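Protocol step 4 of 5: obtain the predicted structure for the target chain.
Materials: sequence only (see below). No template structures provided, no constraints applied. The aim of this step is simply to have a reference model before the mutagenesis design in step 5. Sequence pasted as it appears in the construct record:
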Amino acid sequence: QLQLVESGGGLVQPGGSLRLSCAASGFTFDYYAIGWFRQAPGKEREGVSCITSSGGSTNYTDSVKGRFTISRDNAKNTVYLQMNSLKPEDTAVYYCAPVLTTVQSMCDMTPHPFASWGQGTQVTVSS
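Step 4 output (structure tokens):
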């Protein structure tokens, strides 16, 4: 059974950092691009970042460029999201999921059809 477990969230001051982890099982992890998504209160879920199956290409939404870094360790079936210079606007529940790969071999922040959402991990940025 496909399972992704997010961890690493918490409460942090503006300007602080957090490192999120996404541990996967139940599928061939290194065949798939993986994305991070977030959902803030009262807002739709949005794509934050994604990384290709090999880790060779990444993508970020404009609001996090230069602050967040996605990476993966296929030997550990884990994807990470290093979040620096956090802002209150980053407050959300963060989720990970397999995402699509384009014909140009780039990741796309569209969940794969077989993906299901886990419980996510809460990130709160507040003074």
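Step 4 remarks: The first strand starts at residue 3 and ends at 7. The chain has a mean pLDDT of 95.
Proceed to step 5.
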